[in-house]
Every structure is written in structure tokens, then in C-alpha cells.
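User: What would this chain look like folded?
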Amino acid sequence: MIKARYIWDHYHMNVFADDTGLEVDALGGRPGVHSARYAEGTDHDSEANMKKLLGELAENNNRNARFRTVIALLLGNDEENAPSAYEFEGIVNGTIAHERHGSEGFGYDPIFVPDGYDKSFAELGNEVKNTISHRARAVAKLAEFLANLK
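Assistant: Here's the prediction, encoded as C-alpha cells.
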């Protein structure tokens, strides 16, 4: 919502913005919204982030995790009134593998195995991932909402 409000406040335009995080139960929900910067001193270094995460989990048997995307939407008619705010959430539950598998995708895809599958997002490939992912679920909710606006 912070990203969307920045655009609204500066440009008074209808806007949507999203944020995504990987939440790991054994780590109290970390890395969460800090997923892209999880390894200290890095920014979007997927290898360093995965290495840190796997190191923190080590031999922990609780590998339950979820990807969560939230899309914030601000719709307004004029500059004088506050816009209406909406949020659309998409979640995909799964587990963290003990090691990397696959080469497709980005971020934590090689170590995240979605529930109902025996392969990581990186092994499933973009075609499958893009139909079951957290972001796809959030976007579907946003699209349905926009299609029903009157």
C-alpha cells in the first residue's frame, strides 16, 4: 500500500502495486517482505539469499513455507478526496527443499516445492508456475474485481 499511496499522493492517478514475500514457519515468517534482501549486504542476490535460508534451516524438519503476494489498488475520482483502497492476496503453500533443484524462474524457485507437487518451482517451469503461483492468484482476484466494476 505504501508504494501505491506514493503514486497517488504525487500524481493523483489510479494505481496498483504489489509486494511478495517467502514466509518460512520455522523462521517465524522470515524472510517475508525482505525476501529479495535477505542476505545482509545484498540486494536481489538469489544465490546468497537461498544459501542463508538453507543454512538457517539446516537440519530443521519443519520446512513449511508459503509465498504470499498482496496487490494494493487505489481508485479515486478526484484529487480532493481520498481514493478507495483495496487489497488482493494470493498464497501458495509448500515446503523448502534441502537443496536446489531446477534452473527455471528466479529467486527462491529452486528450493520452493508447492503443495501437491514433487518438484520445485524451478523444475516445474514458468508455464506451470504462472498458473498456480501466489502472484497469479492475486492477479486473478484483481482482474475479477476490475471486470466487475460498474
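DSSP finds four helices and five strands in the chain. If you want, I can go into more detail on any region.
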